[in-house]
């Protein structure tokens, strides 16, 4: 495995980031139009982490995600149409409309779950790494989690066990500065959470989370380390969400200028500029247009798809009374 | 057929299932080198190695969540939570993770894991080591809950639980570990969700679980001397419930007493009582009687603890009230 992505790899990351961004923007519009249910957690601005961290993984590698997982889903190779259909509660969604946008899974892609309980994906990936070890598979498990989840007790328990047992797991901390509305400085005793790795006896790496290439490089190295049997790595990717916590966010807690400052570091134009010299503006524009069309078509199709009818599901049968 | 202690029967089940299926592995506090504080996992680490019999840190939350995901990704973990009193530490993994995924993900995953724990009072273990939290786990759709009362069932139901594709909470009782009984050798797999009539009777049905089955049998002896014949039904599985066996017994005796070592308020007995009234109201000649632990923390000193726990005397009283 390369530690640096090829130009083709970078172009694919760029394409997926554009897919995610356009999906987020469209979801925002649909929410305003009253066409979505429940809160939607957008990840605009954080696409480089989810897409960059999953770019080198295979379907046989597992990831666990968060309630803000759209970039993780698309990065791991899920079909945008079926993701959108799930978010819109359609029968054609990945989970037939049962999961909604926060808990999407596609087991065939190794995407065993977004998770709307903050921190719960961390032990989940650790347990998946136990399975990988016990069955002798050449694979890794990765949990993508936020700075809010890093404050949970279960994070400490999981990191201790993962390092103690040298499990093939990667802890990818997507540090977007806010746990709901509360800034990290009011939640954490340390500014850089990666320093905690030392306390668990594993490497802690701090990277620019708005640089997809940097994310790719750090994760590729952690994957190689995990596969060599050397245990977990904690990677802290500093990033920022441009939008609110969710569509229910009233705002007002982010200082003036902070959003503008981070918008100037938008990961998508940044990767685009880096790629321009390699492949030219024309091809990049074409990739963008295709990505937009894919997302637009996904929404059009999903909105036309049927809603599920309620019926007993085979999965619920084991729990009913014995007849 | 050998005469084994309840703990030995569990050990035999674990050993046989680990030999049969390399995907089965064990984790929990003190289960490896020490063989478990109740010696259920004795000698298993020596036999199967440290990878398959994992001594763990004291991290119940993470361990339970890890067990859930390890079950979804190709292995069959059996987790030991030392005391049922620690189940509250595991609740996110059970209520928000394990119990939902099979349904929420439209059947994309199975969750073949067993959470073994032991509960119950009577050993002077105090308020944080004596509870029966059966209702706590039985409340959650998506979990199966099993509570064997005999060594034979301990083996048969644990083997069935390990082979089950869904999460099973396996409730043992600290006062049953030393109980001896005939246990079939080798392949003895009981069916989860089936009750057993341990004593036939015509006057009143007593539905009990775990250690209370034995108290109910003692009560039945006393009642028989008074001319009341109690039918003792060991539910064996709290969820799914063997409704047809329950209804059949109530239709025979027209009186029902439910006994569970958990607290009565919002307890498992309340569910059972309501279920009987939902499905067999016309067969009842009297209200369903409930027997459980008094609604208070479990005290330490022996006379205090014995006063709050249900026993044969209280079960017999409830039967007398039912048939009066």
Helix content of chain A: 40-55%
CATH class term of the largest domain in chain B: Alpha Beta
Please identify the oligomeric state. heterodimer
Task: Please report the distance between the alpha carbons of the first and last residues of chain B.
Answer: 43 Å
* CA-atom Rg of chain B in angstroms: 19 Å
Shape of chain B: globular
Task: Return Rg of chain A in Å.
Answer: 19 Å
Strand order of the largest sheet of chain A: 1-2-3-7-6
Strand order of the largest sheet of chain B: 3-2-4-5-7-6-12
Protein name (chain A): Thiamine pyrophosphate-dependent dehydrogenase E1 component subunit alpha
Catalytic activity (chain A): N(6)-[(R)-lipoyl]-L-lysyl-[protein] + pyruvate + H(+) = N(6)-[(R)-S(8)-acetyldihydrolipoyl]-L-lysyl-[protein] + CO2
Cofactor (chain A): thiamine diphosphate
Keywords (chain A): Oxidoreductase, Thiamine pyrophosphate
């Amino acid at each position: 495995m390369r530690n640096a992505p090829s130009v083709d790899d970078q172009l694919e990351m760029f394409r997926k980031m554009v897919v995610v961004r356009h999906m987020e923007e469209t979801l925002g519009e649909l929410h305003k139009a009253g066409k979505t249910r429940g809160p939607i957690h957008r990840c605009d601005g954080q696409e480089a982490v989810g897409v960059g961290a999953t770019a080198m993984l295979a379907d046989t590698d597992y990831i666990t995600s968060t309630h803000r997982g759209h970039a993780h889903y698309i990065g791991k190779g899920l079909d945008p149409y079926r993701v959108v259909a799930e978010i819109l509660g359609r029968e054609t969604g990945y989970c037939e409309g049962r999961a909604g946008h926060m808990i999407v899974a596609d087991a065939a892609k190794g995407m065993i779950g977004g998770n709307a309980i903050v921190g719960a994906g961390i032990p989940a990936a650790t347990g998946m790494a136990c399975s990988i070890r016990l069955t002798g598979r050449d694979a890794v498990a990765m949990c993508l989690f936020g700075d809010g989840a890093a404050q949970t007790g279960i994070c400490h328990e999981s990191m201790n066990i993962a390092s103690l047992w040298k499990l093939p797991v990667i802890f990818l901390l997507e540090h977007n500065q806010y746990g709901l509305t509360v800034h990290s400085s009011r939640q954490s005793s340390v500014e850089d959470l990666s320093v905690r790795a030392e306390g668990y006896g594993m490497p802690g790496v701090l990277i620019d989370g708005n640089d997809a290439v940097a994310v790719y490089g750090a994760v590729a190295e952690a994957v190689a380390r995990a596969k060599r049997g050397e245990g977990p790595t904690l990677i802290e990717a500093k990033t920022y969400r441009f939008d609110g916590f969710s569509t229910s966010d009233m705002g007002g807690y982010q200082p003036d200028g902070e959003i503008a400052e981070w918008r100037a570091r938008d990961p998508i134009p940044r990767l685009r500029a880096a790629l321009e010299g390699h492949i030219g503006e024309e091809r990049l524009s074409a990739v963008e247009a295709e990505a937009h069309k894919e997302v637009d078509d996904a929404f059009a199709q999903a909105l036309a798809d049927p809603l599920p009818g309620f019926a007993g599901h085979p999965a619920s049968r084991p729990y009913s009374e014995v007849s | 057929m050998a005469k084994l202690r309840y703990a030995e029967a569990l050990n035999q089940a674990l050993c046989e299932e680990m030999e049969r299926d390399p995907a089965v592995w064990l984790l929990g506090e003190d289960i490896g080198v020490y063989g478990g504080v109740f010696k259920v996992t004795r000698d298993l680490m020596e036999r199967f190695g440290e990878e398959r019999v994992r001594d763990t840190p004291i991290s119940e939350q993470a361990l339970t969540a890890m067990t859930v995901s390890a079950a979804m990704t190709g292995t069959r973990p059996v987790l030991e939570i030392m005391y049922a009193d620690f189940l509250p530490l595991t609740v996110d993994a059970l209520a928000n993770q394990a119990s939902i995924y099979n349904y929420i993900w439209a059947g994309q995953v199975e969750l073949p894991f067993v959470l073994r724990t032991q509960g119950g009072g009577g050993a002077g273990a105090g308020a944080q080591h004596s509870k029966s939290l059966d209702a706590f786990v039985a409340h959650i759709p998506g979990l199966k809950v099993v509570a064997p009362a005999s060594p034979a069932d301990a083996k048969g139901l644990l083997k069935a639980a390990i082979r089950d594709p869904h999460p099973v909470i396996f409730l043992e009782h600290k006062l049953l570990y030393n109980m001896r009984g005939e246990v079939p050798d080798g392949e003895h797999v009981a069916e989860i969700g089936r009750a057993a009539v341990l004593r036939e009777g015509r006057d009143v049905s007593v539905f009990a679980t775990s250690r209370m089955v034995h108290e109910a049998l003692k009560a039945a002896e006393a009642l028989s001397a008074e001319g009341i014949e109690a039918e003792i039904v060991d539910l064996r599985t709290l969820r799914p419930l063997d409704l047809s066996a329950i209804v059949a017994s109530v239709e025979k005796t027209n009186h029902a007493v439910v006994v569970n070592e958990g607290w009565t308020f919002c307890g498992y007995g309340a569910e059972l009582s309501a279920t009987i009234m939902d499905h067999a109201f016309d067969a009842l000649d009297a209200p369903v009687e409930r027997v459980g632990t008094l609604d208070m923390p479990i005290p330490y000193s022996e006379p205090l603890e014995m006063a709050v726990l249900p026993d044969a005397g209280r079960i017999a009283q409830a039967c007398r009230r039912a048939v009066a």
